[in-house]
Amino acid sequence: MAIKHYTKDNVTVKWQSDLCIHSEKCFHGLSKVFNPKERPWINMDGASSEEIIAQVNKCPSGALSISRENTSTATQEIIVETMPNGPLMVYGNMKVRHGGNEETKSSKATAFCRCGASENKPYCDGTHKKIDFAG
């Protein structure tokens, strides 16, 4: 899994490319920061820390997340949401057991495949859009 970190002041954006479902909410919501045509594609100087945090919190897959210096993470309830014609979203910290392996997921959101066509099972990779999944 490719993971990159982008930092401004005491805020770090964590990018996990393997979790991305390419909803483009980041780009359409804050293109001065998130521009996939640029390298690096995240420009932390493009907006205030508060604007960046607000936009990252809209990421439906959890591919983008925020960490802040000098803050503690409180225990969070688990929320499960079915996205229309898309993945099963699980919000909160969890352990995922798959194929005899266990992985701890400490993220704001994890997208699980519902269409059955993901190449990254049990996680969504956006294939549902290519196959016109309805469900």
Q: How would you describe this protein?
A:
With 135 residues, this protein is an alpha+beta fold. Helices cover 13% and strands 28% of the residues. The protein is built from 3 helices and 8 strands. Strands 1-2-3 form a 3-stranded antiparallel beta sheet, covered by helices on one side. Strands 4-5-8 form a 3-stranded antiparallel beta sheet, with no helix packed on it. Strands 6-7 form a two-stranded antiparallel ribbon. The longest helix has 8 residues, at 49-56. The two termini are 28 Å apart.
What's the overall geometry? Answer: globular
Q: What is the assembly state of the chains in this entry?
A: single chain
Strand content: 25-35%
Major sheet strand order:
1-2-3
Taken in chain order, the helices and strands follow as EEHHEEEEEEH
Report how far the terminal alpha carbons are from each other: 28 Å
Secondary structure class reads alpha+beta
Q: Total number of β-strand segments?
A: 8
Give the radius of gyration.
15 Å
Give the helix proportion (percent range): 10-25%
Q: List the total number of helices.
A: 3
The biggest sheet amounts to:
3 strands, antiparallel
